[in-house]
Write a structure and sequence with these properties.
Layout: H1 2-106
Keywords: Membrane, Protein transport, Transmembrane, Transmembrane helix, Transport
Membrane topology: Single-pass type IV membrane protein
Transmembrane segments: 86-106
Length: 111
Amino acid sequence: MFHNCTYLQIIATVKEIHERHDVVMEIEKKLLELQQIFADMATLVDAQGETLNDIENQVQNAVDHIQRGTGELRTAKRLQKKSRKCMFIAIIILLVIAAIVVLSILKPWAK
């Protein structure tokens, strides 16, 4: 009977060891899955980092273009003012010349 009881204890212990082994194997499997998830996440983070760098470069390029465009608009505005001033002076000169020509043709003082 003592021998039978020891044998049953050994079988119970072996069964418990097998169950623990199965649990450890399941934990190992889940850890491997978790490791793969982290590896995939690292790949995604790396890819998104490149995308973010591209976006940052595009934003910087846009800022540069806007600054250049603003400078060109200021230059155009200044040139437009100069052009208006020159046009105004040219019209005044033409009007003076036209008045001189009309007055020289009509000679209102000669009558």
